[in-house]
Design brief:
6-stranded parallel beta sheet, 16 helices, globular
Length: 427
C-alpha cells in the first residue's frame, strides 16, 4: 500500500508541476503577444501574400500561428484580403507586393476576385513580384499578373493542363457485400456515382468536361492577355509537355527569370532604392490586417451573412450552415429597421433538403429587405436552392453552381454483418 501511495503521489506531483510549467509557458507566449503594440507599417514596406494559405470567408485565429510567431494576428477573411489589397493601393508606406506562389489553396472563383484586386492595385504603379520554389498552375493563375515572375533555378514550374480525379467505391463495396440502396432524381446528380457505378456516367462526364474546360479556357485567355502569348500556343505547350523546367518556362515567356531568394531580395532592394546591406520591411497580410482593423466604410448599414459549408439541420457550428442559426440570423436582419439591405455570401455544395427548405423560407421573407446573394467558389444543390429567393444573385465567372436534384442513400449491411459475425464465431 505504501508503494502505491508513493507512486500515486509522485505521479500527482509530476502532473501538478507539468500544469504549472505549461501555464506559465503559454501565459508567457500570450503575454508577449498581447504586450506588442499594433504593428506599424514602416516606410517602403512590401506587402507579402502567401497564396498557399486558405483565406476563409470568415476570419480565423490559428492557435499554432500564435505559438509559432508569438502574435495574435488573425488570418484575414477572404473579403478582408480584398479590402486590404485595396487599402495597400493607397497606402504611401506600401511600395509593392510580393506574392509567395508555391501553391494556391483558394478556389478558382475566390482566386479570380483576388486577381482582380491585384490588377486594380497595379493602377497605383506600385510593383507586384511573384516568387516560388515550385509554382503550380493554380498559383500561376494569380501570379501571371505580376510585373515579374521568378522561380528558383532548381525548382519546378507546372504547365500540364487541368484535370480532375474521381474515386469509385462500388467494386470494393461489392467485394464486401455492402449494398447501398440509392434513390436520386436528375441524371446530372452525380454525388452518388462513386457508390453505384464503377466509372463516370456519360452525364457526369459531360458536366465535368463543361465546367473544367470553362475554367481552363478562362485560365488560358487571362494568361494570354498578360503574357502576350496566344491561347493556341499555351494549349499546345501543355499538350506536348514542353515545359519541364523553370528554364523552359523562361524560354517560352511564361515567367521572367530564374532566381535564388537572395537574388530576388536584391531586385526588390533595387526597386525600393535601399542599400544592399539594408533589411527589407516585409509585412505579411496578417500583420497588415492587424494594423488596419477598421475597414468599414460610411453610409447605410448592410447585413453581411456568411453561408459557408454543408447545410445541416439544427444549430450547426462554425464549419457548416445550421438551419436554426441561419433562420435566426436572417430574421434578426430583416426585422432590424436600421439595416437597409442584406447580403448573403454563399459558398456551399448543399446538404440537408429540409434545412435548405427552412433557410429558403426565411430568405423569401427577407426579400422585402433588399436581399442579394454573392456566390463564392461553389453554390450547388442546396447552396443554390437557398439563394433562389434573392432579389439578385451575383456569381464569379468560375463559380461552380447548379446541380439541382435530390438523393438518398440507405446502406444494406445485412450480408456484410452476417459474414463478420460468422468470422468472429470461427475465431
Amino acid at each position: 500500500m505504501k508503494s502505491f501511495f508513493k507512486i500515486f503521489l509522485a505521479a500527482f506531483l509530476a502532473l501538478v508541476v507539468f500544469c504549472i510549467v505549461g501555464f506559465f509557458f503559454f501565459a508567457g507566449i500570450m503575454g508577449s503577444a498581447l504586450s506588442k503594440s499594433v504593428p506599424v507599417v514602416a516606410e517602403k514596406s512590401v506587402l507579402e501574400i502567401d497564396l498557399s494559405k486558405t483565406f476563409e470567408e470568415r476570419p480565423v485565429t490559428d492557435f499554432q500561428t500564435v505559438v509559432a510567431s508569438e502574435s495574435l494576428d488573425e488570418k484575414p477573411s477572404f473579403y478582408d484580403v480584398i479590402r486590404l489589397i485595396e487599402k495597400a493601393k493607397h497606402d504611401e508606406n506600401i511600395s509593392g507586393i510580393l506574392l509567395k506562389a508555391n501553391g494556391n489553396a483558394n478556389g478558382f472563383a475566390n482566386s479570380d476576385e483576388i486577381r482582380n484586386a491585384l490588377l486594380d492595385f497595379k493602377r497605383s504603379k506600385k510593383f507586384i513580384i511573384s516568387y516560388a520554389d515550385m509554382m503550380s498552375q493554380k498559383a500561376y493563375s494569380l501570379a501571371n499578373i505580376s510585373d515579374k515572375i521568378y522561380v528558383s533555378p532548381k525548382g519546378y514550374f507546372e504547365w500540364i493542363g487541368f484535370g480532375v480525379n474521381y474515386m469509385f467505391l462500388k467494386g470494393t463495396l461489392d467485394k464486401l457485400e455492402i449494398k447501398p440502396q440509392i434513390f436520386y432524381a436528375g441524371k446530372f446528380k452525380s454525388a452518388t456515382e462513386p457508390l453505384r457505378v464503377e466509372e463516370m456516367t456519360d452525364a457526369n462526364r459531360l458536366q465535368t468536361s463543361v465546367w473544367l474546360n470553362d475554367i481552363y479556357n478562362d485560365f488560358l485567355i487571362k494568361t494570354s492577355e498578360v503574357r502576350k502569348i496566344d491561347t493556341a500556343t499555351l494549349h499546345q505547350l501543355a499538350n506536348d509537355g514542353t515545359i519541364k523546367t523553370p528554364q523552359d518556362a523562361v524560354a517560352h515567356k511564361l515567367i521572367d527569370g530564374v532566381k535564388y531568394n537572395d537574388e530576388l531580395q536584391d531586385e526588390i532592394k533595387s526597386r525600393l532604392k535601399v542599400g544592399a546591406d539594408k533589411k527589407i520591411n516585409f509585412i505579411s497580410i496578417e500583420k497588415y490586417g492587424s494594423a488596419n482593423k477598421d475597414l468599414s466604410g460610411d453610409g447605410d448599414n448592410i447585413a453581411l451573412i456568411y453561408a459557408t459549408g454543408s447545410i445541416v439541420d439544427g444549430k450547426g457550428d462554425a464549419d457548416n450552415i445550421g438551419s436554426e442559426n441561419y433562420v435566426d440570423l436572417l430574421r434578426k436582419a430583416r426585422l432590424d429597421k436600421s439595416i437597409k439591405a442584406i447580403v448573403v455570401r454563399v459558398n456551399s455544395g448543399g446538404g440537408s433538403a429540409l434545412a435548405s427548405e427552412n433557410i429558403w423560407r426565411e430568405m423569401l421573407l427577407a426579400k422585402k429587405q433588399n436581399l442579394m446573394v454573392s456566390f463564392g467558389d461553389v453554390a450547388a444543390s442546396g447552396g443554390y436552392y437557398i439563394s433562389a429567393a434573392a432579389d439578385s444573385i451575383f456569381a464569379s465567372k468560375n463559380t461552380i453552381t447548379g446541380s439541382i436534384g435530390v438523393f438518398g442513400v440507405v446502406p444494406d449491411m445485412s450480408t456484410f454483418l452476417r459474414i463478420s459475425w460468422v468470422l468472429r464465431s470461427m475465431v
